[in-house]
Amino acid sequence: MDEKLTIFIAVTSIAVVLQMLILAGMAFMMWKLSTQLRSTTEDVKKHAIPLLENGNHISAEIKRIMQTSEPKVELVLDNAAAISTNTRSALGRIETTLNDLLDRTRLQVIRADEMITRVMDRVEETTEKVAHTVTSPVKQASGIMHGISTGLGTYFGNKKSRKPGPSDEMFI
Length: 172
What we know:
Layout: H1 2-53, H2 58-155
Helix pairs in contact: 1-2
């Protein structure tokens, strides 16, 4: 469970960082746009004050400035709208891709978990079979050796190998 949570946090962190980068890009573009608008405003002010002093050319100059500035302002607004649209579209594609990646990662984690579980079960079965295969012959050999030892002890009259305990005569 901790690994899945870690993977989920990592994927979420990547998504947040991507969103942060996109927002930083948008902020940079807005800052650049703001700088351009300020410079345009300063240019307008520089040209407007001398025109106000010169009364004859005021209406003609203002008209010219408005005509030259209007396409620029429209272009800036169109660019801002295009940037916003492109950003929404890109975020939608990124979200779809991240969701697909997350789903695939989940499936792979499930497959890996099942595979490890099967391997562990097989290792356990193999360990039991090996233990049974090794201990059975050892027990049989021990029993045979004990029987031979007891038989030889009895044959040669050696009673040392007999275990101390209650004799058969004590039982009624």
